[in-house]
């Protein structure tokens, strides 16, 4: 029976094991140092974005994307250092990514839309927008969808893909807005009298900016009315209050002055044949 010689075994094993152990130690050090560098890079990115007044929703999103990307790259590097074949590993990741991408096309479109909204900033939280057939204030901007709050306190959730790729009207971008009214009067009424009544109501209101730039013009000779278009510039918060107040005051003033506001009506004529 052949005796087992520990000394000879160690002499054979150590030359093979030491280089591999050194690779493992070096890989562990690379992993530790790499994670430390990634942490510092993420902290630097967040600081820079905060100094540039980036959107609060954008900072954690970009930080998370960068962190995940760098960690994957670090793991691949460490794996190659210990002798693991990374070519097949990368190929598997690529194939998995393609399969997931094909399965989640709609979600990826919403994801891309969310990224573009956060970067391009067509609107912000708290602003009033018109999109996808609704007018509402922006409550939340998530990475896959945006939450809106309607005037009657309904929560509206819109996917970011269709939202970003369609028309968006932002009513809150400018500090001021132009209020517009259409007042119809009868063809028998005096246009100048109606214009004076509207002038006294609209352009004496303290909420109206630039009172000298008056706009009261005949906009249309309709089937049953002469339509006067009126415009006035106001600060954003005063838009709806002025619109409703003026509408009510003009109606009451027209009634007092005998000016008729036409409304659709049908005249029925009966023709009776005499025997």
UniProtKB/TrEMBL annotation:
Belongs to the MscS (TC 1.A.23) family. Residues 179-261 form the Mechanosensitive ion channel MscS C-terminal domain. One of its GO terms (cellular component) is plasma membrane. InterPro entries: LSM_dom_sf, MS_channel_1st, MS_channel_C, MscS_archaea/bacteria_type, MscS_beta-dom_sf, MscS_channel_2nd, MscS_channel_C_sf, MscS_channel_TM-2. The keyword DNA damage does not apply. It holds the Pfam family MS_channel_2nd. The keyword Nucleotide-binding does not apply. It comes from Roseihalotalea indica. It is a multi-pass membrane protein. Residues 64-105 form the Mechanosensitive ion channel transmembrane helices 2/3 domain. This is Mechanosensitive ion channel. Keywords: Cell membrane, Membrane, Transmembrane, Transmembrane helix. Residues 107-172 form the Mechanosensitive ion channel MscS domain. It is found in: Cell membrane.
């Amino acid at each position: 029976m052949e005796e087992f010689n520990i000394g000879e075994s160690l002499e054979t094993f150590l030359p093979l094991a030491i280089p591999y152990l050194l690779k493992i130690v070096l890989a562990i050090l690379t992993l530790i140092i790499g994670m430390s560098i990634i942490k510092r890079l993420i902290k630097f990115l967040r600081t820079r974005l905060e100094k540039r007044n980036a959107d609060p929703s954008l900072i954690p999103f970009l930080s998370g994307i960068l962190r995940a990307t760098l960690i994957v790259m670090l793991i691949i590097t460490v794996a190659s250092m210990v002798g693991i074949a990374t070519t097949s590993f990368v190929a598997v990741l690529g194939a998995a990514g393609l399969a997931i991408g094909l399965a989640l096309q709609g979600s990826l479109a919403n994801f891309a839309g969310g990224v573009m909204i956060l970067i391009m900033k067509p609107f912000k939280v708290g602003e009033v927008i018109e999109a996808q057939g609704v007018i509402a204030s922006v409550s939340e901007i998530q990475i896959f969808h945006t939450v809106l709050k309607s005037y009657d306190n309904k929560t509206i959730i819109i996917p970011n893909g269709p939202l970003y790729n369609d028309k968006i009207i932002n009513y809150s971008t400018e500090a001021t807005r132009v209020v517009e009214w259409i007042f119809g009067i009868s063809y028998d009424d005096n246009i100048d009298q109606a214009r004076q009544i509207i002038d006294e109501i609209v352009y004496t209101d303290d909420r109206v900016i630039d009172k000298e730039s008056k706009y009261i013009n005949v906009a249309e000779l309709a089937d049953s009315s002469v339509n006067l278009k009126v415009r006035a510039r106001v600060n954003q918060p005063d838009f709806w209050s002025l619109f409703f107040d003026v509408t009510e005051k003009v109606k009451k003033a027209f009634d007092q002055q005998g000016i008729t506001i036409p409304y659709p009506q049908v005249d029925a004529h009966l023709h009776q044949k005499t025997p």
